[in-house]
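> run fold Phosphotriesterase-related protein
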Amino acid sequence: MTGDPEIRTVLGDIDPAELGVTNAHDHLFFASALLPGQELDDPAAAAAALSRFREAGGTALVQWTPHGLGRRMCELARISRETGVHLVGATGLHRAEHYAPAALSRVADDLAGVFVEDLTGTTGPRAGLVKVAGAFHTIDSHARLTMTAAAVAHEETGAPIAVHLELGTAGLETVELLCGKLDVPPEKVILGHLNRNPDPAIQREIAETGVFLGFDGPSRANHATDWRLFDGLEALVEAGHGGQLLLGGDTTTAAARHQPGAAYLLTTLAPRLTKQLGGDVVTAMLVANPARAFATSWLK
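> ok
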């Protein structure tokens, strides 16, 4: 049964109009063997980071940490309740390199089923999106497997699909697979890390497909391309794609939590963008666009 579009937060479904000022891609909890010693696994630190974001004017944060990487959904629910900030959690799988082979084998036989259970289950907080990942400049066999499972989960639930593009690459290939071959509507697909591959022609071509484009920086990992974020966004707005743009912080390490941190999106990045693009445009990126990108008429 379907109804009006809603956003599935860790505390339950809400009207998209309630979401407000949104960090559309970040992490309060994240732990990967690829980032030893930089785990985001401290609930008190997560709550403090979320409080700073709230004090800066934020009302919602979307955590893209997928299945098996320490997403801590129950802790998300607790700190959402304590801080009053809406939190959206994720299911899905990251690149294979983030997992031990045994961990992948445990879910490989029914990947779509795992995703659907996370999205619709009756025990514990539910995820509100499926996060998957491409490989560097290609869709490898693992990405094809996870994206196919994500498409099945979308078909069964209506959930939006968020995609980590490795260093911002393979965006068109991802759209071709998800929207072309797997029939996921473009407006249900969010491509992340477009700022990491600041090719204006590619960004424009991706935008013309109708998907949402995530510019999730700056962060400590992306400083080489951060300075091109502003001109890239301006070009897309001038081309008529302002309604497809999302902004996030993408804090994936303990070091980045403190410098710049999730609040940087609102304390520093948004004011700079406002001077260049205008307040209405930036407000749309932070409020109206995420309210559409993460909303769906849930099927289960």
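The chain has one domain: 7-293.
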